[in-house]
């Protein structure tokens, strides 16, 4: 639990830091396709949190979650799953608000 908490604190620090956040945004938007942009964001999260993998949750056109797992030094997508919009991630996607379990 403490490792997850530490990772969450570090990730929040990255997001709230305007300099780091701006670099990630600019780097992602300079990519030509979605996979490259998501790989860039995942690599940034991996390096800041010292994680081994990152999951990205997207909402597709049909209203389902598209969950993409990135891992490794190159942050290549290694698994992609379509799922119903549910749980904490689904609640956040539907409401647009961040929900934390304390």
What's the mean pLDDT score? 79
Helix content: 40-55%
How does the major sheet shape up?
3 strands, antiparallel
Structural class: alpha+beta
Structural account:
With 102 residues, the chain is α+β, with helices and mostly antiparallel strands. A three-stranded antiparallel beta sheet has the order 1-2-3. It has helices at 2-16, 18-29, 34-49, 87-95; strands at residues 53-59, 65-71, 76-83.
Search tags:
102 residues; alpha+beta; 4 helices; 22% strand
Short description:
The chain is of the alpha+beta class. The protein has helices at 2-16, 18-29, 34-49, 87-95, and strands at residues 53-59, 65-71, 76-83.
Topology of helices and strands:
Elements: H1 2-16, H2 18-29, H3 34-49, E1 53-59, E2 65-71, E3 76-83, H4 87-95
Antiparallel strand pairs: 1-2, 2-3
Helix pairs in contact: 2-3
């Amino acid at each position: 639990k403490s490792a997850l908490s530490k990772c969450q604190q570090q990730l929040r620090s990255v997001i709230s830091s305007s300099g780091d956040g701006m670099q990630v945004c600019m780097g992602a938007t300079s990519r030509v396709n979605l996979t490259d942009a998501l790989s860039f964001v995942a690599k940034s999260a991996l390096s800041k949190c010292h994680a081994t993998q990152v999951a990205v949750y997207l909402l597709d056109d049909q209203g389902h979650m598209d969950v993409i797992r990135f891992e490794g030094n190159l942050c290549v997508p290694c698994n992609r799953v379509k799922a119903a919009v549910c749980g904490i991630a689904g609640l956040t996607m539907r409401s647009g608000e961040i929900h934390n379990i304390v």
